[in-house]
Every structure is written in structure tokens, then in C-alpha cells.
Amino acid sequence: MKYLLMIYRNATGRDALDDAGPDALHQAHGELIKDLIASGEFLDTKPLSRDNARTVRVLDGQIVSTDGPFTEAKEVMAGYYLVDCADLDRATEIAARLPEAPYSPIEIREFE
Questions:
Q1: 88-97 and 22-39 helices cross at what angle (nearest 10)?
Q2: Rounded to whole angstroms, what are the CA distances from 53 to 50, 68, 72, 73?
Q3: What is the full per-residue pLDDT of the chain (112 aa) written as tens digits?
């Protein structure tokens, strides 16, 4: 079964991860990716940039856009993993290994 693990980041998580430094974050992701490749569960992962981001709505038939990835929420989507694993429990185990998980929510969605 395929799952999308969406990594959200909030101010608390951003500060904690920044304090740990980029090397620690890259190392944690690198180890997880290596393990998922070895298990055959890895499909894809990407960080998402805020550059050239836009939020779009259609209101009364008119396109309304705002610069930035910011909806009215405290968290913004920072990246994702796409995995192919046995079930939701396994996807949850993988999501819990993400270095952002102690600080920000990880949302799991199944592909139909």
C-alpha cells in the first residue's frame, strides 16, 4: 500500500530543528532513506521550498492568489515522503522516525 507522509513545520519545530543544526537533520533523513531503500519501501522524498509558492482560491468565480505557502494555519507543509509499505501501522512507524515528528505533525494519507 502506498502512503504519503506529509511533514508539517511550525515555529516550535523550526526553532528546535534549527538549534540542532542542518547536519543533524540531513543525517537523520539520510539514515531513514537508507533504511527505507534497503527494505524496498522507499519511493520518493522532497523538501518543499517557500520560494515561488502561492496560495490560490476561487472566490465568487474570481481567482484570488496570495504569495507564499501560507494558509490560515500554524503549520506549513515542509516536505514529504512517499512510501510503499505493508499497512498504516508500518507507515506510522516510518512517520515517527522523521526528525520533525517530535516537534511538528506528520500527516499520513493512503493512495487509492
A1: 150
A2: 5, 5, 15, 16
A3: 999 999 887 767 667 777 777 788 888 899 999 999 999 999 999 988 777 888 888 999 999 988 876 666 677 788 999 999 999 999 999 999 998 888 888 999 998 7
Phi–psi pair at 12, nearest 5 degrees: -65, -45
Residue 12 to residue 63: CA distance in whole angstroms = 33
Does the pTM of the predicted model rise above 0.90?
no
Query: CB–CB of 13/103 below 8 Å?
Result: yes
At the second CATH level, the architecture of 2-110 is 2-Layer Sandwich (3.30)
Q: Return d(Cα 56, Cα 66) in angstroms, integer.
A: 7
Domain boundaries in the chain? 2-110
Q: Are 84 and 45 in contact (CB under 8 A)?
A: no
